[in-house]
Specification:
The structure is a single chain. The chain is mostly beta strands. The protein has no helices and 22 strands.
């Protein structure tokens, strides 16, 4: 009998905010409010895996080895999936509200989850495919958590919030680090926070605090990319500390761009369109 075969996949209802690069392979994952999660093959531009979740998805994060993918929802639930089979390995609820940011520590023994209830939940995960244990909550933000990054040694966490606070935390105790001397030699494993000295020059004149939605430093720490409410993907040299920094801008989306991330080799990056739900891969020269 005749039938229809899908040649390409994509997201449907709702905005598209969740996206993360694979740590070692030329792949990336997207998680949408249509309750669908894709792991994409970047070379062929086709889905490598597709699975569904129970609630609209808002954020996702690969473990450092890539064996699991954590997916968070708009209602506080989040799940750990086997990245090959899509099987749900464990389920959690971190507060009653939307989760916008999550990341594993560089050694894969912890995961941090940033919620709209203003808290960052830190879990221990010595076995990535077993139950995780809540270590504590980082309490101190006065607005919802927007972005977070671990330091290279996994001991420090940086976070930003909806009211433009940029705070640091001791991962083991979940206490806020307020002495800048304690941060002097701290290097972040990733830089996705939109605030901080290394990225203070990525804000062009006329932008307000809500206009930049996403930020990503390349793996070689030479470039930082941003995505904004004007449909643009922007590239700057990293670190970008000058308010007069030069940059290149690229247009492809029809609405706000919710996410930008470099692929593993830094030769490409992908961006996500919120309302247009499009996924664009860009070559980086």
């Amino acid at each position: 009998s005749s039938g229809i075969n899908a040649e390409y996949g994509g997201h449907g209802a709702g905005d598209l905010w969740g996206g993360t690069n694979h740590p070692s392979e030329n792949r990336f994952a997207t998680a949408g409010q249509d309750k669908v999660v894709y792991i994409w093959d970047a070379a062929s531009h086709t889905p490598h895996k597709r699975f569904t979740v129970d609630k609209p998805a808002q954020a996702c994060a690969f473990s450092p080895c890539g064996s699991v993918l954590a997916v968070a929802s708009t209602t506080g639930e989040w799940w750990v999936h086997d990245s090959e089979s899509g099987e749900v390995l464990s389920t959690y609820k971190s507060g009653p509200e939307q989760i916008d940011a999550m990341a594993y520590s560089p050694d894969g023994t912890k995961i941090a989850v940033g919620s709209h209830d203003n808290f960052v939940y830190v879990f221990s995960c010595d076995d990535l495919k077993a139950e995780y244990t809540l270590m504590g909550r980082c309490t101190g933000h006065s607005s919802f958590i927007t972005h977070l990054d671990f330091s290279e040694d996994g001991k420090t966490l940086q976070t930003t919030s909806g009211d433009y606070e940029h705070l640091f935390w001791d991962v083991e105790t979940c206490d806020q680090v307020t002495n800048t001397k304690d941060l002097r030699d701290v290097t972040m494993a990733t830089y996705t926070c939109i605030l901080g000295f290394p990225v203070c020059g990525v804000w062009p004149p006329g932008y307000d605090g809500t206009d930049i939605n996403s930020c990503a430093r390349s793996h070689d720490s030479k470039i930082v990319a941003t995505s904004d409410d004007f449909g643009l993907v922007n590239l700057f040299r990293y670190p970008c500390c000058s308010p007069k920094a030069e940059w290149d801008m690229y247009r492809g989306h029809s609405a706000h761009v919710t996410k930008v991330r470099f692929l593993v080799n830094d030769k490409e990056l992908f961006s996500l369109g919120g309302r247009d739900q499009s996924i664009i891969q860009w070559g980086v020269n």
